[in-house]
Fold these 4 entries.
Entry 1:
Amino acid sequence: MAESPAILLTGVGKRYDIVACFAQLTTTIAVDPNPLAPAQYAAHVRAAPPPIADPGYVPFLRELCERHRVGAVIPLTDLDIEVLARAGAEGLLPTVLPAEEPDFYPVMVKPRRGSGARSIHLARDRAEKNFFVRYVAGGRPGYEGEPVMVQRAMGGPELSIDCLGDLEGRCLNAIPRTMLESRGGESIKGAAIRDSELIELGRHAMEALTVRGPATIQVFRDPEVGLGITDVNTRFGGAFPAPAYAALPGRTYPELIVRMAAGETIAPHVGEFREGRTFTRYYWQLELDERLQPTGREIVPGGPPAPGA
């Protein structure tokens, strides 16, 4: 573990699965302003940053990186992706901006920087579209001035492609999956599938956008339009277990990220994974003492029912 550079994860929230995977590979620093964010307790180091809009946010992260020899900084939410991209930098979407008039209805009105299916509204005509644009952009306290976009309302099955790009923007892998069930915009049941059209779409989108790191591409297979991308989330998706289970040994995305952070060049292996792996997610919890430290106690669930019960 000492030979690999550390990994810093921001906005860890409840993504215990992602943090735990990295913590098994190398020193992992979890950053979240909420002292009760459960995922931070899977990391080796916990840190509470200033607010993302605070000028001290990036310097705070930079100091952590220097202190812990961090090789990669990975956001787990959309909240600070642009902030981190600007700090690091110092076509396929059927989407228009609110001021433009779409040539199709119905449409979906949604925040341009949204996550978790927040504030997504179906508009059947121009009047409804204009109403929801005003509502999402500035109709509620705390959301004034939020950028909005308008997308064609897609039909057919919804699917996702979990991808990883290297530091040059080459797509290393693209693993499609079904969305059997979701809650609050987060997939909780699904299965990795082998679909050459989706695999190629994921690879093409990643390399066209030069995505470095993980991304989840959400698509619909509309009976009229065909495949249409609705979201490109440049972070791990909610269904992180799907590519983790489907990846070949030694090729899970956390393993590849740690290897790249250590300076290794990874050869693209798009389409090399195990299809048919299904995941089903569930809730769990931690008990904390008066100092908000884990007690180590677990609530042991009951075993399976006896045969014939």
Entry 2:
Amino acid sequence: MKPTFKLNMKQKLAALAVLLLTSVPTQAADNNAVTEPFKMAVIIDEAYGRAVVSGKYEEAINKLTTVKRRARESFSDHVNLCVAYTKSSEIEKARIVCDAAVAHVRKQEADVSRIKDHRSLEVLAYRANLSAALSNRGVLLAATGETALAREDFVAAMSFGTRYSRIAAANLDRLEELSAQKA
């Protein structure tokens, strides 16, 4: 029996754009090399992602939380709210929606695990979405000083081998640099 797991085309080909969490690169302590800031993923074609990318965080938050016709349980809503709340320093709200983004994808795990072709669009989308959600949550955790938990999320995001895993790897490198500077 074929699994009933289905994704719409936007989910299959989720166009995640990279958004810089910090606006200015910093100097590494040991060699004065410029290091990369943390990065978060935003779904630009859905859930007011373009507003988030352009820095209109409050506008995106207001539209995503007040429009009654929107399905507020969508993955793109959670991802984009996670970034908007994080950038707006609304940490508790960011934590809730970042966790919800991860949970939303993990609900699909049983369906995805039944798909034999590990290169199918559904499996690839699942891996990419979970990698992006974990990396975003890792950035939030890093920003709140929860280094060990951030590291766990970055490592888990990297394990999926997606292009978003590279973002997680860069975020983990940045976290390690910051930890070494504090030591």
Entry 3:
Amino acid sequence: MEHCNCGASEKSNQLQNILKGRIAEAIINQLFLNLGFSVFRFGMEHSLPNFKTLLFNLHPDVAFSIRKMPDLIVQKNNDVFFIEVKFRANGKFSLVELEEEGNYPYDNARIVLVSKENIKCLSVIELREGKEMYPGNYNLFINRKEFEGDKRIVSEFCNYAVSFFSNV
């Protein structure tokens, strides 16, 4: 496969990162659907797609809350979870990244990290307790009790993610 060596501009790097994030979100969306969850796309880019340009004119607290809306809400039986999907090629994610702009407002959210190696998950509370996601640790999505289901399905989606992101 030939690749264009046109020199990546900052704008094209931003676009690549947006696309990677949306692909990771689509994989996790489908994973939850296949595990029997109802999935609702909730993030700003879904709920308020044209609102982004107006954010700078809003009160800072309102703009922050809107920007920090979780990507998905998933529901199964009586359980409902906010899901924030992140892609990191290096497989690292910590509280520092989540709260770059200030305190993350959804304490009960789960952060699902898609990387070139696997899919991991921690709650915001676990991140605040000092846990982090990085290569080699055991915060695998497949082991999360609140999302128990057919482990073959989780493995299959993990393989999709690894296969897709291994070359990006």
Entry 4:
Amino acid sequence: MVTVPAQYQNLVKEMSNETGIPYDVVAAQAQAESNFNATARSPAGALGWLQFMPGTYNSHAAAAGVGKGTEFNPADEAKVYVVYMNELLKQEHGNLRNALAAYNAGPGNIQAGLGYADHILGTAGQKGGTITTGFPLPVPGLGFLPGVGGNLSISGILGNLFSDTRDLLERGGLILLGAALILLGIHMLGGGSGNITVSSPQQKSEGGSKQEGSSETKSAAEDKSPVGRKPGEPFRYAKPVTATSAVEAAAVA
């Protein structure tokens, strides 16, 4: 593991958060580049604690919100690192080992940089792998939002919306179908007449007279029940329809 100097700890943490690269890997990379020397210069012309070539640095400075030629400013170089490493991770489909190799040897020369990548990962106690937290999304005035850009897409949003809408419609259709079956069951129990026949209230008078609505009190005009009574037979009420019987009939239907 790498011991990060106090003045660089917050920068390394920000670089890790905004790229999804583990803190120990970022620290090992900075140590390998310059051993945390803000004024470092390499024989090849790389500058600063993260050893950017001037051309690479200046081409990404605007996206990072810094000026060109500020490689010796540790905070500025950290911001350019975030932009550049996210670009490499995107190009390599999140493959951290390849992205580190590209940082060292160039995007078109991955094989030449794999030794460097393995050294960084070994120092950090990592095995490489794929960065799955997403690539940060730059937001004007807010900087980068970690773990958003790589997973955020219009197609993904619309896909989720359509999926939720489809589920809602399917559930609504099942509810409507169930209601229709219940109504059909009630219709069948009512003899197919379209009306539901129910019994009269069971009330007794104080003198113990017959219940209101009994067969003895029905007039001849009322003696035309739809339940199939033969002439001369006592009036019979249709069996009361309950919610349970309605649902059972709907299930059979």
